[in-house]
Write a structure and sequence with these properties.
Strand content: under 5%
Strand order of the largest sheet: 1-2
Order of helices and strands: HHHHEEHHHHHHH
Largest sheet: 2 strands, antiparallel
Structural class: mainly alpha
Oligomer: single chain
Length: 375
């Protein structure tokens, strides 16, 4: 071998099994796996060495490069298979690589565990929320029953409570006013429709009765004029109804919703206050002290919420009162001037009232959408 020539005094003998295995290669293909293993051992035996027992530089570099190439790739690890063939075949000693498929079952089990953990955490969170809600509901129900039976104490802001009671009474009175205004508009609408029909009949009789032509004609014109003025007054009344309805069912109602939230917060505050007072009256030991501290924290949270809503309700009541005065001042002035002008027969003044409040009358028969708009 060339390597032996470069290192005199050292001779590397090949194993006799090498020739025998090559002979068996040509005789039968059934011994190919054993021959492949023998060839691998022979290849290892034929590695040239120097006089110092070191591997030749060129062969060592090639060996390192082969090992680095085989071990590189990380996640794309390959599994090798030695392919054996007959002696002298150019493909002898070729190593084929296939994709490594080990460990796939273990990789698929990871997300299932994570999903189970997430589901478990969600279930525990919902259970904790249900527990807190049940405790809070129990305490509030107990507080309400105690107040109704006269056994529990109640936090009362006298000034704010009086303003809330006035607001509720105002809403009841305005609802009655709104009901009567709608009733008047409905009945007056019937009067206007009757006047229109009566004017048409008078006009028809004026044409068909020559001897009473002038008399029927005067009445027809009078009824048509009253019908026109009635429609103008009806427009003013409907505008009045719409404005009062907005005030009662939107502005005042929104304030009462805030009042309801304030009252619920007051009940929760009193419930946790009572609970804290009962704990403070009892003994203090290693078991009760943590409960007292927790109750103190809950009491502080509900106290802050109660104070915040009380301030908010006070501000809303103040703005509502100012808005109510402004709206009702304009609407009452509109209603008075329109009704006075109508029954005084002052058509010009009645039209001026509508212009003053920017009221536009609808054309007769335009209450509902047309058939084109419905398509």
């Amino acid at each position: 071998m060339s390597a032996a020539g470069e290192a005199p005094g050292l001779t590397v003998h090949s194993h006799p099994a090498t020739a025998e295995m090559h002979a068996r290669d040509s005789e039968s293909d059934s011994e190919e796996p054993g021959m492949a293993e023998a060839q691998a051992r022979d290849s290892a035996a034929e590695i040239p060495v120097t006089s110092n027992g070191e591997v030749s530089d060129s062969q060592e570099e090639r060996f390192k490069w082969d090992m680095k190439h085989m071990m590189s790739g990380g996640p794309t690890l390959k599994e090798t298979r030695i392919v054996s063939s007959s002696y002298g075949n150019p493909s002898e000693g070729i190593i084929e690589a296939e994709t490594y498929r080990g460990g796939l079952k273990n990789a698929q089990s990871g997300p299932v565990v994570i999903t189970d953990e997430i589901s478990k955490n969600i279930a525990l969170e919902k259970l904790e929320q249900m527990k807190k809600w049940s405790i809070s509901t129990y305490k509030c129900t107990r507080q309400v029953l105690s107040e109704k039976l006269g056994r529990g104490s109640k936090t009362v802001d006298l000034e704010l409570e009086s303003q809330i009671e006035i607001l509720r009474e105002t809403k009841r009175k305005y609802e009655n006013l709104l009901r009567l205004a709608r009733q008047m508009a409905s009945q007056f609408y019937q009067v206007v429709q009757t006047q229109r029909q009566l004017g048409d009949v008078f006009g028809e009789l004026s044409v068909k009765s020559p001897e009473l032509h002038e008399e029927f004609g005067y009445n027809a014109e009078t009824q048509k004029l009253l019908c026109k003025n009635g429609e103008t007054l009806l427009g003013a009344i409907n505008f009045f109804i719409a404005s009062v309805n907005t005030l009662v069912n939107k502005t005042i109602e929104d304030t009462l919703i805030a009042v309801k939230q304030y009252e619920n917060a007051r009940i929760e505050y009193d419930a946790y206050r009572t609970d804290l007072e009962e704990l403070n009256l009892g003994p203090r030991d290693a078991v009760t002290i943590p409960k007292i501290e927790q109750s103190q924290q809950q009491f502080q949270i509900h106290k802050e919420r109660f104070d915040k809503l009380r301030t908010s309700v006070s501000i809303k009541l103040k703005f509502l009162d100012e808005n109510k005065i402004k709206v009702m001042h304009n609407q009452l002035l509109l209603f008075h001037n329109a009704v006075s002008a109508y029954f005084a027969g002052n058509q010009h003044q009645l039209e001026q009232v509508l212009k003053q409040f920017h009221i536009k009358l609808k054309a007769p028969g335009s209450d509902g959408p047309s058939w084109l708009e419905e398509q």
